[in-house]
Structures are given as structure tokens and as C-alpha cells.
Amino acid sequence: MIPLLIAGGVILLICLVLINIFNRFARNRNLVKDGWSNIDVQLKRRHDLIPNLVNTVKGYAAHESGTLEKIVQARNMAVNVKADDINAKIAAENQLQQSLRSIFALSESYPDLKANTNFLDLQNKLAEIEESLERSRRYYNATVRDNNTYGETFPAAMFSGMFKFQHFDYFQVDEASKENVVVDFSK
Q1: Segment 75-125, tens digit of pLDDT
Q2: Residue 1 falls within a domain, yes or no?
Q3: What is the pLDDT of residues 25-66, one digit of tens each?
Q4: pTM of this prediction?
Q5: 75 in a domain, yes or no?
Q6: Between vectors from CA 84 to CA 78 and to CA 89, what angle results, nearest 5°?
Q7: Which of 182, 47, 179, 46 has the alpha carbon at shortest distance from 104?
Q8: Quick check: is 141 in a domain?
Q9: SS3 for 179?
Q10: The CATH number of the domain where 52 resides is what?
């Protein structure tokens, strides 16, 4: 009788541990998705702003159509990534971020554009969006860190496949976006 109670207690304890691990996987995944939804809202705002920004610049820098087309292409690629593919969305957004840097580099070469109130207003809105994105990115990356760490540590790592643990990528600014912008019109 006592061995049966001990075996039942061990089985109950194992079940409780597995339930706890499963629930934590689910909670972490949901926190990551919540963090991503905050980023997604800011990305949508940025995507909506880009056509206005490009059209404003077109009037002043008509011969820079190649640069403007690259920005529009990067925006369209970012918009068309499947919403549930967070890792692909991060890569597309980093490409868009890099493209956007070139539009502000153009403004340095066109004093009239730099003084245009519409351009300045759009530039300020974009800066506000980027600040909101940075806050959302920090929250998202913290949830990704917690999720990935939990799924890679003992005992959860033993059950990660069984509970369909999902590893998420961090949303970081790529190295190219950290560099200073150089504009060369001598070519």
C-alpha cells in the first residue's frame, strides 16, 4: 500500500512539474507575441508615413529617384511579410531602416528640402515613431530573452520539443544602421 502511495505521489509531482513547464512556455510565447504587437503598431505608423515622406522629397530631389525607389521597395517588402513570421519581419524592417537613413542624407544636400515645413513635420513624426519603436523593441527583446532562456535551460529544455517551444530572434538595429551616413554625389 505504501509503495503504491509513493508511486502515486511521484506521478502526481511529475504531472505538476510538466503542467508548470507547459504553462510557462505558453506564458512566455504570449508575452513575446504581445511585445511584437506593440512593435507592429509602430511599424504600421512608420509604413503609413513613408509614402508621404518620399513624395515630399521627390519634389526637391527628382534626380534621386533610385534612392526613393529603394525606400519604397523596402517598405513594400516589409509590409508584405507574413504577420506571423516575426523573424522575417525583423529582417525586412532592418532593411527598411537602412533605406530610410538615405532619405535624411539627401536632405543635407538640398537646403530647400531641409527647410520645407512639411518635410520637417514628417521628419519629426518619424523621429517620434522611432522613439516609440525603441521602447517597444526593448520590451520585446526582454520577453524574447526570458522566453529563449527558459526554453534552453533545465528542466524545460528536456520538454521543449514536446511542448513546441518557439525560439524568437531579437529585434536589434543592424550594424549598418549604426554607421554614419555618407552621401557622395560625385558619381
Answers
A1: 999 999 998 888 899 999 999 988 888 877 777 777 777 778 888 888 889
A2: no
A3: 999 999 999 999 999 999 999 999 999 888 888 777 766 778
A4: 0.76
A5: yes
A6: 25
A7: 182
A8: no
A9: coil
A10: 1.20.1440.20
